[in-house]
Amino acid sequence: MTRKLCGTNYPTSICFIVVNEFCERFSYYGMKAVLTLYFLTYLHWDKDLSTAIYHAFSSLCYFTPILGAVIADSWLGKYKTIIYLSIVYVIGHVVKSVGAIPTVGNTDVHIALSMVGLILIALGTGGIKPCVAAFGGDQFDECAVTERQKFFSIFYMSINAGSLLSTIVTPILRSDVKCFGNDCYALAFGVPAILMIVATVVFIAGSGLYKRNPPQGNVLLQVCNCIGFAIKNRSKGSKHASSREHWLDWAEDKYSKRLIQEIKMVLRVLVLFIPLPMFWALFDQQGSRWTLQATRMNMAFGDSVSIKPDQMQMLNALLILVFVPIFDLVIYPVVGFCRIKVTPLRKMAAGMIFAALAFGAATVVEVNVIETVVNPAPAGKCLLQIYNVAPGDINVKIGQYDLFPASITRLQDPPKYETLQLEAASKNLTIEITSNGVTSECEQTFEQMKAYSLIVDSDIIGFQCKLVEDNIQKTGDGNPYLRFLNKGPDPIGISVGDAEFLVPSGFMSPNQSVERGEYTDVTCTIPTTPPKPCPKLNLGLLDFGASYTVILMEESGKPVPHKMEDVKANNVHIAWQIPQYVLMTMGEVMFSITGLEFSYSQAPANMKSVLQAGWLLTVAFGNVIVLIVAEGAGLEQWIEFLLFAGLLLGVCIIFSIMASFYTYVNPDELDKIYLEDSGKEEDDQDNLKEKREDIQLNKAGKSTKL
Predict the structure, then answer these.
(1) Deepest of 127, 176, 249, 625, by most Cβ within 10 A of its Cβ?
(2) So where are the chain's domains?
(3) Mind listing the pLDDT tens digit for each residue in 479-512?
């Protein structure tokens, strides 16, 4: 008998697979990094709907791997499955990019293209997810264990490198590059589309070098069929019922004892998976709720450097690369040295605690963030502030309500909005204005749930008032809002960064989003023929999250700006999000990586794909939980964060109790048991048939065990 020598050369085909994975992960995480802000600022959905659709997409991405595994192992094989679904993936990216072009149809068209694109992307990324890593493992000989382990390390690094780079680059493409007058989402989605095209081309380019295993049947389907047969057979009953200790033993009439025993081992682990979705419900909110929180924070680092709210997600990928060696080489050995037994299930429980602490930190941050937010008025009420542009101080009374008991100084920055009782959907109220003993009246109609600024001015016959509706919502990307009130005699054209304002005399311009920054030399022109320049305006700092009204008064023959802050600037620095990212990433290292190792170590060789499918489903159901809470609960954000933290702590207690009853097993013991049995009963025809079935199952397992 000749022994096959094991090759030590590293397969060249691995280079194509690693580059493919880097580009694919760049395209996926790059697109996903800006997705929530795309819903919020481009499609103009509210925060709850944006969060719900984001997590619905994430959930679908983790349901579709089961479909990809079935297609690869039952029909097409991994190579063809990767190619065909990568093409679907590319089409999805292209459709998504086209949907972000403002000139392509109306809002309904944009929404339709976006949803179709996301569904195709979910089918593509989820479908190839279980295939690429396993296909890379197939390139090595069975005995090349060291080389295969090195490949998976490189493969893992390519995933994190693609994720880290994309979450830095695509937010820059979104905000720093302007197209069609606004943030360039078409480019932010287009570059990931190009990377996915590159990924597909690179993978196909290596086709002549790949070792391809033909499809040999899907173990997951066999497991489902065996369970279904056991349930069906048990429902019918049998005279041998007393000899069946477990409900799965009812499948012995058709399936081998070894397969049934392996399924029992898998089910014991799957039962432990039941509480796990709650961890992912918290973890995946880094790209939704935490990104939305970042938009309401101060993102400046010094005078000239600022970070994008969607770039904070890069911390997770960066910290993973830092924490994995620290935990493996330092923390776990130190804990073990203290004679504390470190088991996989204990690590996972600790990971849940750290994730809950991360949401506790997010709650503290949120409580401070909302201090600068103006809450909309409830039904039957509206919000009101007053600008006094008349000479001298004034006192204002609205109907029977004395909301402003103190005198209002000329060009005084309103301290805050006051709540005006309407007790109806709309109401016409008399406004009484008094100055130096002279009283004037005017009437205005107020509508519920809106915010207003009342502009009080004077003329030769007394006071006059004008009511303008305000926008109190902060921008989706954290930039400030700006508008101008022109009290000069001439219309004025103003350029603030990329934003252009044309303000007729006596009018208020609409709110526009402008880039955060210092504006000390703002261009000002009087639009005559030819245009007449006016002295440059000094607007000072326009800070993150604020809404400003600049009143232009004619002084000494030139317009002079008086800046009012309607909505306060974000005063909590985005660096305060770092602790919650650190805690969450520590939780991920202990929970996610350990969970994968645990499920692999507790599964028979040909059942690892089944547990991989179960693990991915926990991620999918975790996103479903967020979807339900975001759309159904209607809670304040800090209360929602606190709720998730409390729920995970409760789930952690349940999981710890379940884990205390779990007995670790060695799946390799099955090989010894069944090899001995097959040797003793080799001449028995019934057992020979069972052995053949085992061999078929083992062959099927080779395609999915990685």
Answers:
(1) 127
(2) 11-217, 276-373+570-667, 376-473, 479-566
(3) 999 999 999 888 999 999 889 999 999 899 999 9
